[in-house]
Structures are given as C-alpha cells and as structure tokens.
Task: structure prediction
Amino acid sequence: MTSTIHLLDPQTIGQIAAGEVIERPLSVVKELVENAVDAGATRVAVALEDGGVSLVEVVDDGIGIAPEELPLAVRRHATSKLSIASDLESIDSLGFRGEGLASIAAVAQLEILSRQPDAQIGARIVAHAERAGEVEPAPSPVGTTVRAHDLFANVPVRREYLRSASAEFNRISGWLSTFALAYPGVTFSLHHDGKETWTMPATADVRARLAMVFGKAAAETLMPLGAQAARGLQGTLSGYISTPGNDRADRRMQLLFVNGRLLRSTLLAGAWTAGYSTFAMIGRQPYGVLFLTLPPEHVDPNVHPTKSDVRLRYGHQVFDAVKRAIATTLRDHATARFRDAVTVSPAPEAMDAALPQLQTLFEHAGEPADAHGNGSSGLRVLAQLDSTFILATDGRALVLVDQHAAHERIAYEKIVATAQQHAPGEALLVPLSFELGPAESAALDRTLDMLREGGLEIENFGERTYRIVATPAGYRSRAFDVAGFLEDLTEDPKQREVRERIWASLACHSVTRAGERLDMTEMATLVERLQLCENPMHCPHGRPTIVRMDSEAIQKLFKRI
Ligand code: ADP
Ligand code: MG
Result:
C-alpha cells in the first residue's frame, strides 16, 4: 500500500458508488422497471439473456426522454424527480436519487433509445464507465428502451459473486411478478434467452396476479382485508391475508408495499404477528400482501441504498392500524365460519335451565355462561363419544366437537387476554408445591416471567422446589398438569414464538383432556364458550375444533344421492 493520499479517478469512484446500487442483474431490472413505472408506462417488457448478465432489456411505453436530456439522464445525480432538497421529504416517485442509470453505466454497457409521444423520431445514446457517446437520431417506438449489456465485465470480482444464470433469473422473475401486484393496471412480461416466460395482462383485479406470486393453492386461501381496514390511518390500506390454518415456516411471503414500493419492515412484521395473535398456529407464519399508501412526507425511503427498507413517521399509528385491520378481518372471517359450522338459533329450554350450575368447570372463561346474552347456540348436545368428542346437532347436520381442542382454544384465548390486559393471576388459597429434576427446573426457570404474564405465577423457593401461587383467573377449579406442561417445555426450547408456544402449552395442560367424562351441561357450556372465541375453529396448534357433517354428506354415506 502507498502512503500518499490521492483522489480516486472518476471511473473508480463511479464503480464504488454503483456497487451500492447494482449488486446483481436483479438490481438492474429493479432500477429500470421502477423508471418505466415512474414514466407512466402501461406496458413494461423485460427481456434477459444469461440470467441478465449478458443483457437486461426493459421496454416501456411511458412518456419518453427528450433527446437533449439523454446525456443528463445517464449522469450521476441527474433526475427529473427531485429538484430541491426539501422534495426529499415528500417523495412520490420510485426513483429520486438520479443514480440508477449512471450506476448501471458504471458497470455495464448502457444503451438508451427513447421517443416522446409527439416526436417524429426517437434518439439513442450509449454510455459506459463515465463516458457517454453523442446523441443520435434513431427510430424508436413511443416510450423508452434501455439495455444493459455485459454486466460487471469491467468488475470481475463482482461476477464471482453471481450465481448461475437460472438462479439470477429466478430472483428476477420472483421480484418482477411480486412487484406487479402493486400495479395491476400495467401489463408486465418477461422473456429469457428469446423465450417468453410469462405475461401478466393489465387487470382491474389484483386477485388475478396472486396465484403467480403465492402459488395457486396458497392464493386460494387469501382473503381481502375488510373495507374498514384504514380506520385510524392517514392513508389507505388494502391487501390479502391468509385464512387461519394456512401458514408457512418463515415470514418471506408477508409482502408489503408502501406507496408502491416493495419493502421489508421489521415494524410491520410485528403487526402481522400481533394481528394474528390468537389465529396463527403456534410457531407458524401467515402470509399475504399489504398495500399501504401514506402521505409522502410520512415515509422516508432514503435510508437504504437499494431502497429496500423505509422509515415511517408515526410508525406506531401505522402499526396499530395494520394490526387492527388484520385482527378485525380474521375475527369477522372466524365468526362467519363458525356460523356455518354451528347454526345459531334460540336455545332449547332444557339447556337454558342447566346453565347456572356450570360455574366450576368453565369458570376460567371469565364470565357466567350467558353473560353475552347469547343464550345457547342452536346446537343440541346429544352425547359424548368415547369420552373424547361431543356429539351434537342443530337439526340439520351432525356436529362433532373435539372436547380437548375446543377447551384448549378457550383457555388459550383467556391466557392471551390476561397477558394483554396485564391482569394478575388469581391467588391460590393453598399453594401447590412440587419438586423438579435439574433439566426440568432449568427449563421452568427460563419461562417463569412469561408464565406470570399469562397469569400463572410460580415461585421458586430454593433447591428446585416450586409452588404455584396464582393461576390464570378461574383456573383454581381444575388441576394443572405440571408434569405434562414441563415435558412440553423441555422438548423444544429453540422455537421462535416462545411466548405463544408456552401459553398454548399452559392452556393445553390445564383443560379437559381426551378420555375425560363430561356431563351434558359441561358439554353445552364448552360449546357456548367456544362460540365466544375470536377463533373458534382451531385449537392453538392449528387442529380443528369442530367438524360438521351435513345431511347431504350423510345421505351420500347411505347412497341416497
Ligand atoms: P431517478 O430515477 O432516481 O431519477 P435514474 O438515473 O434512474 O434516476 O434516471 C434519471 C432520469 O432519467 C429520471 O429522473 C427520468 O427523468 C429519466 N428516465 C429514466 N428512465 C426513464 C424512462 N424509462 N422513461 C422516461 N424517463 C426516464
Ligand atoms: Mg431511477
């Protein structure tokens, strides 16, 4: 290394700056497609060769670039989208830094062909490594064609980081089809090595594009966010979210557009989790897409070189609105599904009379059984099957309720509510004490705080001896299965959604088990309680709580139809 400080030559400076923006062929596609959308295009055609390394071509039918402006367009910090620094506070275009084209030119042979709608002929310019050629007249369709040839030919190290052509291509195809979700009015197409990969015609309905991004089966599970979604928000919110029971191992398919930009936001990832709180299966992630528009001055996209993260002013308001929109949509959906499964009609008298004696078993659900004025559902409990299932009917269908799954769901929602309201657990008159082995005791120690939040207070009074001093309100009437609970705790300590998992486990071990005999009134109350749940259709582990066999299905069994 030399010890003298000297200024870098412009070519090197250009390459370093480009390095932040252009990382791989996908980055070129992003910059060019965003420019096309900013130019008001209704058709954007992307063509690639060798996964974009030999060629990225983007053709649009937008407003075009005036010939005399072409040399400027390829210069760094030249943009038509921003004129004074204060514009940075209210950006309403996708580009704004004026460095997209210049960065591409620094690491590839850039060629632009453009014609404005009222011009007789188009113009062409080529640029590479800080040098731009002369602007020449050239025939061109209305709009702009940009080609980037031989990416990173002059930066061999960068090429080494690229994956195979098909891997680079897949990234581009994935990004472009996802990006297209936010621009249903624009036709997008993708070609690779001369062959058409796909075309998405312009459509009035985003739904047509969901299958391409989520896959056909998953797209069918998506439901639109309710119309009241944007309440409490200065802006608009729409989107599609997965129905409960449909989920993935990771968050990758929780897509977010803010003012037309496809982004990641840690803040809003949290809003997905909060919105699904009692709906997602423990340890699993819902999926879908949210379209958020906010006043431009509330969004700062200028925090990341590739513009892939935003800073939101009033982020907490946005968080609350998104969380509420998701939760409300899920609740409405669950209510509708429960109504389908269990037709609600006036209660048979015999069951009403039985309700007051139910305080013991189901007390933990909070209020007396008829506190919500629902009376009983139209479900008539007929019998218990195998000490495990509740057999009931609404007169039209046979309804089977898994007694453990149903009770677990009721208890779980109670625990979550206790934690959210910071309600204290209920003190036990005679604390229950127990002693543990070293592994179990270590596992329990790690979770004491979370359990306390959920209402279960356990004290360690030395030498691996513990006592339960308070339980989630109302639990006192049931034995808590400490051994089963601890077995769950030691089983899998590295799960991500630890808190929900522990609560689910707490619920699981403090309720009716399969194989336990219940009398008619206990069963009736269980069904009542289930109906008051936010998400009555699934237990916290995602197993169904209710199965309905309608008369048609039964007729089929008897070969009547
Ligand atoms: P930015 O998008 O941040 O403004 P770019 O370097 O990507 O910076 O583009 C520079 C300018 O070139 C843009 O501001 C725009 O005026 C013009 N331009 C680029 N691409 C297109 C296009 N496809 N259609 C019309 N104008 C374009
Ligand atoms: Mg741009």
